[in-house]
């Protein structure tokens, strides 16, 4: 008998009569003598893979000096060191399923006689039992295997393994879930899948539930694993609270406070909410040059959270002079008196000195409307960010005045600052961009609102200078074109300046107040006579030629802005459009 370290199967050498085993064949050799030579290879047998198996043949008749040969099909490595001895052996190879090996022994005697016989050895695989594995999810805030009442729990057995599976992707052929203890939660659920989904019971008292998973491999061997979970009573089950996302904003911008809260216990409803801001912001963090720091601080605190009892609300970022982290905490209370809170951190930076104007837009969009109300479900809109909303919330100190985030100062004919209430002024300084702009008039003089010009420049022109006096242009000059107008205004020395020029696209666009919908898209308290709403655009030229409409490498068009709609476009340089000149800048 021989064995391996895995599984032992005894291979017994049977001493059989001449008619045993597979039978015997006799051949008479040319040397004559006793030709009644018979050999028996032994009985058929089954052996486990990896086992050592001994072979031995029984021979009779013939001359009594024998020579033996062993062979196998399919091929095996047979150890047979002494051919005069019938004993041999082999180690059963690894197999994935039962495999038959036909082993033949041949004997010759000294008289030239030969006989042979065969035996069939079946090699079977060793079946390693599968391993059932149950993965249990974790519930935030609770110990392992502890859950609230009334929540969905998914047990996962898909990690169960079978080490000797022929196909790792299908190592387990069958899953079977059962409940062994506690309130029945498994009835009606799928119990033959790799996962089991249950809903924990809602009860006055805490519950203990136990489950078993039995897995079966492709060879029919099984393994079982169990798990026990503990379920809180309905009065101990806490609400689930999420205060939302942490954010980064500038002072005066909108902080979205969009929380989420729920309970799996019907009797715990209704839930109540309370938002609270941390107290690490005080009047000492306000700008030192604020006109009334104490009043401003009080106003900001009053406005800090719009409605602290709403789950979804907003806050105004407090004024700070350095980067400050402000915490906003949402506390949720259920009908059983349980309280849970969650906190988000908001990084607040001082509003930087803007170098370009905001758009003027304060409205916010939903999927079907425009409104001035805060829209938490559609975050990141223009109306929630930037200088316009900061000014609306009272946290921008202007050098002059102006709508939304715009900051303008009126200048008289000498270029000196005028009071904002002055009835007449000649120019306007934009305190954000540093640009100084001409103001149109309604008196028939050089700057009259009704005058239009074709585009012309003998310097930077895109290869085509333009039209000296385009069709439809109207002005008080001999040639109604932009270059002639620049020359005339500098000769006049408007507001004491002699460096007036055409604005770039970006400079002219900086005047656009896109939040205005019922008049020109510009603050007409500072820029009167810009135009009137009509079916036709109110085009103003920029200094920038357009690549659209190039003919023979010459730019036939130039960019213009419509102060009616707020859009830009390219116009043929011979077109008639208005002009507003500019100077200086940062």
TrEMBL record:
It comes from Alteromonas stellipolaris. This is Lcl C-terminal domain-containing protein. InterPro entries: Ig-like_fold, KIAA0319-like, Lcl_C, PKD_dom_sf. Residues 427-583 form the Lcl C-terminal domain.
């Amino acid at each position: 008998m021989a064995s391996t370290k895995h599984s032992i199967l005894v291979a017994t050498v049977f001493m059989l009569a001449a008619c045993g085993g597979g039978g015997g064949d006799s051949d008479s050799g040319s040397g004559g003598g006793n030709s009644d030579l018979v050999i028996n290879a032994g009985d058929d047998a089954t052996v486990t893979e990896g086992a050592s198996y001994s072979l031995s043949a029984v021979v009779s008749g013939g001359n009594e000096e024998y020579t033996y040969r062993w062979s196998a099909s399919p091929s095996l490595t047979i150890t047979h060191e002494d051919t005069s001895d019938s004993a041999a052996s082999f180690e059963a190879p690894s197999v994935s399923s039962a495999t038959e090996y036909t082993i033949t022994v041949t004997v010759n005697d000294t008289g030239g006689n030969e006989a042979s016989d065969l035996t069939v050895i079946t090699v079977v695989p060793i079946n390693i039992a599968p391993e059932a594995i149950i993965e249990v999810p974790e519930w935030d805030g609770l110990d392992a295997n502890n859950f609230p009442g009334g929540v969905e729990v998914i047990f996962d057995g898909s990690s169960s393994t079978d080490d000797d599976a022929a196909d790792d992707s299908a190592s387990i052929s069958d899953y079977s879930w059962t409940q062994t203890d506690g309130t029945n939660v498994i009835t009606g659920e799928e119990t033959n899948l790799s996962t089991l989904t249950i809903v924990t019971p809602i009860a006055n008292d805490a519950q203990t539930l136990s489950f078993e998973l039995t897995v079966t491999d492709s060879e029919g061997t099984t393994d079982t694993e169990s798990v026990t979970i503990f379920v809180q009573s309905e009065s101990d089950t806490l609400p689930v609270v999420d205060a939302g996302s942490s954010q980064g904003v500038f002072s005066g911008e909108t902080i979205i406070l969009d929380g989420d809260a729920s309970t799996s216990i019907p009797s715990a409803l209704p839930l109540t909410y309370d938002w609270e801001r941390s107290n690490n912001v005080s009047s000492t963090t306000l700008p030192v040059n604020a006109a009334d720091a104490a009043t401003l601080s009080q106003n900001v605190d009053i406005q800090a959270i719009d409605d602290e009892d709403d789950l979804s609300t907003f806050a105004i970022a407090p004024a700070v002079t350095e980067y400050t982290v402000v915490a906003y905490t949402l506390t949720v209370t259920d009908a059983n008196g349980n309280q849970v809170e969650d906190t988000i951190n908001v990084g607040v930076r001082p509003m930087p000195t803007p170098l370009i104007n905001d758009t003027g837009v304060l409205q916010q969009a939903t999927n079907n409307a425009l409104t001035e109300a805060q829209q938490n479900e559609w975050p990141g809109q223009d109306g929630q960010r930037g200088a316009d909303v900061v000014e609306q919330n009272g946290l921008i100190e202007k050098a002059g005045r102006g709508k939304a985030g715009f900051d303008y100062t009126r200048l008289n004919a000498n270029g000196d600052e005028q009071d904002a209430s002055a009835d007449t002024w000649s120019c306007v300084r934009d305190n954000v961009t540093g640009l100084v702009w001409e103001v149109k008039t309604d008196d028939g003089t050089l700057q009259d609102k009704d005058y239009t010009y074709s585009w012309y420049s003998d310097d930077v022109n895109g290869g085509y200078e333009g039209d000296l006096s385009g069709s439809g242009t109207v002005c008080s000059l001999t040639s109604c074109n932009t270059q002639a107008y620049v020359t005339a205004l500098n000769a006049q020395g408007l507001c004491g300046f002699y460096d007036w020029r055409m604005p770039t696209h970006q400079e002219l666009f900086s005047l656009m107040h896109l939040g205005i919908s019922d008049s020109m898209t510009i603050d007409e308290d500072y820029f009167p006579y810009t135009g009137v709403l009509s079916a036709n655009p109110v085009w103003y030229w920029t200094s920038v030629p357009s690549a659209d409409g190039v003919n023979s490498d010459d730019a036939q068009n130039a960019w213009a802005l419509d102060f009616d709609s707020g859009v830009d476009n390219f116009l043929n340089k011979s077109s008639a459009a208005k002009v507003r000149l500019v100077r200086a800048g940062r």
